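Marked as duplicate of an earlier ticket. Keeping the data here for the record.
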Amino acid sequence: MTSSPSASPAPDAVPARDDPGPLTALGVVRGLLARHGVGADPHFGQNFLVDDAALRAIVAAADLGPEDEVWEVGPGLGTLTRELARRAKRVVAVELDRRMLPVLAETLAPWPHVEVRHADALHVDFGAAAPGALFVANLPYNVGTAVLSRVLTAGRFGRAVVLVQREVGDRLVAAPGSPAYGSLSLWVAHHGRARVVRLVPPGAFHPPPKVTSAVVRIDLDRDAVPDERTFLLVRDAFRHRRKTLVANLRAVGQPAEHVRAVLEAQGLDPRVRAEALDLATFRRLAAALAPPGAAG
């Protein structure tokens, strides 16, 4: 199903006569899957959302307006896509699983302003999104962080709301000193502000995964610029979590005495570990540790 960007929105579209019914009803979902001869495929990280409360939480966190453009990855049966279509001007849904295309053609039939793209989200051009577009998705478990990383660096989205494994959600929002804090937490902090909106139990999905999930909202800074020097330091600093910053940087060729001197000049304990440092501190350390004349 495709449409041109100029297609007029139909937020109050009436379901077609052969509409399958509410896609959060397990019986409806089972019937839809059986009719099309498909099922959830672990290869695609598929777990279909069948919980009204979780669906409402995602949509509320997205805070959609009638002029918004929304991009989604992994629409599956179109459960979330339909709610986005009821509220937004344009929806672009990226689906890799060819088996789901006939399903989506059925469930999204009332909404001509939805464009379904059969594509791999790890290669799709997110730079084609309208400036300030929103990204809202029940991300496939197997590629969730990789897709989100591409969304953050696209520089087009104003807000992202994602349903991910709780472990991933904890890492996205983690603060320095917490067990989940690491390079992903810093990467997200560089691009915006993240918070967990709601936890979602396994029973909210069909089939149920073995883990709890989390709805995470990230308000993005579209003006964030690449900071390769800082994130090279972050990568090296977290090489071995239980080792000190000095030990990790020494392992990649930084003279230990120089690193200690820089830490002391920044008012930091030479025994400090990476997990104790916030993004601003990493930026200062990256500048101080860089060779004279090195570019940022």
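See parent ticket for discussion. Residues 1-17 have pLDDT under 50 and may be disordered.
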